[in-house]
Amino acid sequence: MGTCFSRGDRSPPKRRGSRRVANPAADGGGSNRWARMRSSRKEETLIHERALAAAILFQQQLQNGGGTAAFDRSASLRYPNGHSKRNQALPRSSSSRARSLTDPLLQPHQLINQDIKLDDLETNHFVLVHGGGFGAWCWYKTIALLEESGYKVTAVDLTGSGIHSFDSNNITSLSQYVKPLTDFMEKLADGEKVILVGHDFGGACVSYAMEAFPAKISKAVFLAAAMLTSGQSTLDIFSDKVESNELMRQAQVFLYANGRDQPPTAIDFDKSILKDLLFNQSPTKDVALASVSMRPIPFSPVLEKLSFSETNHGSVRRFYIETLEDNAIPISVQESMVNKSPPERVFCLKGADHSPFFSKPQALHKHLVEISRIP
Fold this sequence. Notes:
It is a single chain. This protein is α/β, with parallel strands linked by helices. Helix content is 34%, strand content 14%. It has helices at residues 32-39, 41-63, 140-148, 174-177, 179-187, 202-212, 234-244, 246-251, 274-278, 284-293, 300-303, 331-340, 356-359, 361-372; strands at 3-6, 78-79, 92-93, 125-129, 152-156, 194-199, 217-223, 252-255, 266-269, 297-298, 317-323, 345-349. Helix 3 crosses helix 14 (361-372).
């Protein structure tokens, strides 16, 4: 993973095709020597696994100055796989899917700009703003990784989201929906700054805060998010694309709390299509968490057009993180927003679905750390 392009480089990212290596043909010889080798294959496999485990552990010890091997900083619980501990060469993640090679576990020495200390940054405080239907709960992996790296993290529940008790159908404006975020920003001390990260519809909420509190925002990060220009609403960005996105049209369920003769009050999702739309690359356990935690999206804030000024909203540094396997906000839509209002830099998450905090938490963490350390 790396930067797709900056302001000076607008060429589209090149994707490498996957490469498959066929297994060499099996030897068909019938000598006693080969027969004996086949009969002892299980023993050799066990020896090979043990030797591989020993070599990896030894290499880890060397990288850590000869001490004990570095703790695997995955946010998920780890446990031995299988019935026999003797046959377990390496610990496996409790995730229901194998860890992708594009989202490897990161050790501290792999992070960029290691010579920069957190105290030297303009701010080491991240504020995470969830997308429509989500809540602060969706950031649990990101919170753990950032805090383990020494950052301060705040994840907010917007009105009617997460554990916030308000009914989404009764939210009539974006200011009402985003009030938990604006309340938090107002309480920041003079001179204190944060890095705002907005996902999905949370991007509009971040833009709202940029206009209201520019002096308190060091950087704004849009993660597969709605990045509006002045005079736009979130619906303006997505309305045309939704018509061509069959999966999105099937998944949306409009709620009419004021009656069918009135406009919709909220948008819910068909749970049977949720995985394909939002979590097509995410672990099953996280899909299960989302299926019992997501709440309807208030409709009125999606319709609201925002007005921005250059002195406020325009003064905040913006960064965009694209999710390349996104079925909810396809990469074409993300690139359209980026091209219309270019941010300072754009990053790519290969293999990430619409919920990279689930599908690519390590790679997302690396990008957030890198953005925090850009002078």
